[in-house]
Amino acid sequence: MKLSKKLTLNFIFSILVSIIIISFISNLMINNKFENYLAEEQQSKLQKICDEINDLYNKNGYVLYQREINSYASLENVYIEIRDLNDNILYTSNNGNGMGGMSGMHRRMMRMHNIPEGNYIEKSCPLLEGNDEVGKLIIGYIDNAYLTESAIIFKDTLTKSFFISAIFTIFLGLGTSTMLSKSLTNPLLEIRNTAVEMRKGNLNRKSNVNTSTVEILELSDSINYLGETLAKQENIRKKYASDISHELRTPLATLKSHLEAIIDGIWEPNEDHLNILMKEIDRLSTLVDDLKNSFRSEELDLVLNKTRFNMSKELRDTITTFIPLYTKEGFCIETSIEDNIEITMDRDKLKQIMYNLLSNSIKYLNEGGKVFITLIGNKDNSIIKVADNGIGIEEKNLPFIFDRFYRSDNSRNKNTGGTGLGLSIVKSIVEAHNGIIDIKSKYGEGTEIIIILPLNN
Q1: What is the pLDDT of residue 104?
Q2: Where is the HAMP domain positioned along the sequence (predicted)?
């Protein structure tokens, strides 16, 4: 069953049940209250008849006339009987055979509205001469005689009004529920169709809903954000595949051409030529290792071997291993390292960070190039800065410098042979230690990388 139909049926069912319950309870309570009111009015009327007959009896010199009794009985639609103290009948009205003057029209009204005819009841009150009781005044009536034609019409009108109101409310509820269900289901259908299109691969499909419901708008925005994220990931995946293919093709092509030259006899399999092949194999192995480490970046927090150690000493030792390499190329490394900074982190990952940064810097230094490394600490963090006076990075390339396989055009032109994975790996390691990495660079002047690592992880 469709959601719109289900919502409409549920709304209608709820409205119908509510109307039936409210109408039944309201009608029952109002009718009971009305009948109680009429019954009390009837008792008041009977008491008034007693009082008036007593007044008339006293005014007439303690005499009652048959004509007056008949007139009262006919006017009030009751049966009147007067007895002495010995229970002998003195006067009686002649309008009812002991049935309280119940008229034929009233009986027809009772039958028309399916109301029982009721029971004959007598009310007795004393007949007084002054303050002395001289007889009994008996008034006979039907217990539901208070249900006059006007009262019955009122009750029927009340019931009809409840019935008409219920029908009107049902139609109103039907229209309201239909509009409400459409206002809810149409945006949901749009979101569902967007999700279906995304499942089919159309990640550029957007959910455009016109609604004031905050939750549905948030759901629509979430679906659109998911589509954008998936589209970006798909583009990244395709770019990764292209870059991996490009990076692997170069050393493999070199290996193939050299081996073909040896097989064809153009090259002799001497030490120089084999060393060339070995360098290409090493380059290929490095690329594979970097690629593996790059894609394991999300798992670094699961394999970190954290220990407490002297960061200052470890940093100096790592830098010392690079000094001969820099000196050989005509470059130099200068340091300013604060002593005895203790940190809790993976010692090998710190070495890997510095290895990648120093290996990366040496590729982009000009003649007489220099790298300056500083380490300072405060209460909570250690701050490592690696600055060089190399070729720098163009401003347009800075937002992408930590992306996997990204290399700016100037680095490719320099034919450094880098894979574009070094800084991506460094960023992954830093973030795995809850740290922050930032880069500042000016093209033609140099680059500075700032790493902030918490002392206690």
Answers
A1: 46
A2: 182-235
Q: What is the pLDDT at residue 226? A: 84
Q: Are 388 and 365 in contact (CB under 8 A)?
A: yes
- Taking alpha carbons only, the member of 43, 217, 13 closest to residue 125 is 43
pLDDT at 293: 60
Nearest to 138, CA basis, from 83, 63, 183: 83
- Spans in the chain with pLDDT lower than 70: 1-6, 94-118, 143-149, 151, 236, 239-244, 246-247, 250-251, 254, 283, 287, 290-303, 403-422
Contacts of 48 (CB under 8 A, 6+ apart): none
Ordered domains of the chain (ranges, CATH):
3-169 (3.30.450.20), 299-454 (3.30.565.10)
The answer to whether 346 and 301 have CB atoms below 8 angstroms apart is: no
Other CB atoms within 10 Å distance of the CB of residue 260: 11
Q: How far apart are CA 236 and CA 216, in angstroms?
A: 30
Q: Is 265 helix (H, G, I), strand (E, B) or coil?
A: coil
pTM: 0.43
DSSP class of residue 298 equals: G
> CB under 8 Å to 21, separation ≥6 — which residues?
none
Structure tokens at 260: 């073909």
**Which of 218, 224, 283 is closest to 248 using CA atoms?**
283
Find, among 330, 416, 444, 429, the residue nearest to 384 by Cα. Answer: 429
∠ CA(346), CA(350), CA(351), 5° rounding?
120
Which pLDDT does position 117 carry in this prediction?
61
**pLDDT at residue 2, as a whole number:** 65
